[in-house]
Hints:
- Chain A has 111 residues and is mostly beta strands.
- Chain A contains no helices and eleven strands.
- Chain B has a single domain (3-115), classed as Immunoglobulin-like, CATH 2.60.40.
- Chain B has no helices and twelve strands.
- Chain B has strands at residues 3-5, 10-14, 19-21, 24-26, 32-39, 46-52, 60-61, 64-69, 74-79, 88-96, 105-106, 110-115.
- In chain B, the strands form three sheets. In chain B, strands 2, 5, 6, 10, 11 and 12 form a six-stranded mixed sheet that branches. Chain B has a four-stranded antiparallel sheet with strand order 3-9-8-7, with no helix packed on it. In chain B, strands 1-4 form a two-stranded antiparallel sheet.
- The relative contact order of chain B is 0.34.
Amino acid sequence: EPEVTQTPSHQVTQMGQEVILRCVPISNHLYFYWYRQILGQKVEFLVSFYNNEISEKSEIFDDQFSVERPDGSNFTLKIRSTKLEDSAMYFCAGGQNYGYTFGSGTRLTVV
Amino acid sequence: AQTVTQSQPEMSVQEAETVTLSCTYDTSENNYYLFWYKQPPSRQMILVIRQEAYKQQNATENRFSVNFQKAAKSFSLKISDSQLGDTAMYFCAFMKHLSNDYKLSFGAGTTVTVRA
Lengths: 111, 116
């Protein structure tokens, strides 16, 4: 079965550094999402992306965050200047409508 | 905004027994989808079961079934014949039935431990 692939699986970064999390959705997906899960807490919506633009974003998704799909394949989440509280699992997901497939996640640790 | 509440932080069940996880939600929408996701220690999010609100029949997937009570805004998950591999965190989630708005709102999760 096709998968949503996320890289890296684990990234450690210094506070204040920029990070880029990468996702390769399934080819026929139309909608793309990023979710975040702080350890032991619930999964929170960050942003949705449709037709090459952001369709919705949450309060968490402030100016430090950005997304793009530069080549029609990779879907990236950039955090410009990481903070300690950005440490979390970040999940990419893709789908056509109400059917989602989640990636296996990137564990981001900010030190 | 939709609120999803899972009131049981942890549940423990003996192998081969049945466990029921509760979920309630708050919405003014009439059409929506409800989901249960499983998150094993690997942290992967795995879809267990999905229910369309306009369908009265409760969804089932092998050993997993739901009790959907639309008027009560309740969506419980029953795991029958529990297996050790069912040990995981389970999240209830809500999605509106609107074009271009397919984001999920999750509950806080219930950790299920299956004992041998």
